[in-house]
Amino acid sequence: MKVKIEESWRQRLQEEFDKPYFERLVSFVKSEYGRANVLPPGHLIFHVFNSCPFEKVKVVILGQDPYPNPGQYYGICFSVPEGVAIPGSLANIFKEIHRDLGKPIPTSGNLDRWVAQGVFSMNSVLTVRAHETGSHRNMGWETFTDAVIKKLSDEREHLVFMLWGAYAKEKAALIDSSKHLILTTVHPSPRSAEYGFFGCRHFSKANDYLRNKGIEEIDW
């Protein structure tokens, strides 16, 4: 199956695109776009891939579901477009960066500047019906994004994987910890952040690791 996606990713993921599960997934997603309000807009499903080529990735942040509110999700996990109110989880991420690195808390929730530096912020499910969190779970996206994580682990080295919350922590099984740094804690959601996300210092730890490997740090 031919999929429009940045070339370095297409080369590595073509074997997934050719599998029967992916064809079933595509037909499900197309039918959903035809009968419901689905997020993100179709051309932005692979936005994080198109904005961050395979060899540019330095840090991987894993989420689960896209934001379900129209106008929020545009293909980058935790990020919202310029001018959109900052969701609670992202506000807590900014608070932790402020505590950890002393950086001022941004007024914009747009994380494109992170992605441009090699922060690959991906949900495990890449589409959702508006106002229906989890509505596209278990349709094939998880199989695909697990393959993405495994491909990054196998073919790259010295990446930082940030796994926040029980769901993301399960993905550690796909990652070779002998050649990558895996950072785990609770989810930054307002419901859980105070139980370990605040004070985790993942952002300074990531930069320390990258610096020690001779890789340019992220300007969080």
TrEMBL record:
<dbReference type="GO" id="GO:0005737">
    <property type="term" value="C:cytoplasm"/>
</dbReference>
<dbReference type="GO" id="GO:0097510">
    <property type="term" value="P:base-excision repair, AP site formation via deaminated base removal"/>
</dbReference>
<dbReference type="InterPro" id="IPR036895">
    <property type="entry name" value="Uracil-DNA_glycosylase-like_sf"/>
</dbReference>
<keyword id="KW-0378">Hydrolase</keyword>
<dbReference type="Pfam" id="PF03167">
    <property type="entry name" value="UDG"/>
</dbReference>
<keyword id="KW-0326">Glycosidase</keyword>
<keyword id="KW-0234">DNA repair</keyword>
<comment type="similarity">
    <text>Belongs to the uracil-DNA glycosylase (UDG) superfamily. UNG family.</text>
</comment>
<dbReference type="InterPro" id="IPR018085">
    <property type="entry name" value="Ura-DNA_Glyclase_AS"/>
</dbReference>
<dbReference type="InterPro" id="IPR005122">
    <property type="entry name" value="Uracil-DNA_glycosylase-like"/>
</dbReference>
<comment type="function">
    <text>Excises uracil residues from the DNA which can arise as a result of misincorporation of dUMP residues by DNA polymerase or due to deamination of cytosine.</text>
</comment>
<dbReference type="InterPro" id="IPR002043">
    <property type="entry name" value="UDG_fam1"/>
</dbReference>
<feature type="domain" description="Uracil-DNA glycosylase-like">
    <location>
        <begin position="50"/>
        <end position="210"/>
    </location>
</feature>
<keyword id="KW-0963">Cytoplasm</keyword>
<feature type="active site" description="Proton acceptor">
    <location>
        <position position="65"/>
    </location>
</feature>
<dbReference type="GO" id="GO:0004844">
    <property type="term" value="F:uracil DNA N-glycosylase activity"/>
</dbReference>
<keyword id="KW-0227">DNA damage</keyword>
<protein>
    <recommendedName>
        <fullName>Uracil-DNA glycosylase</fullName>
        <ecNumber>3.2.2.27</ecNumber>
    </recommendedName>
</protein>
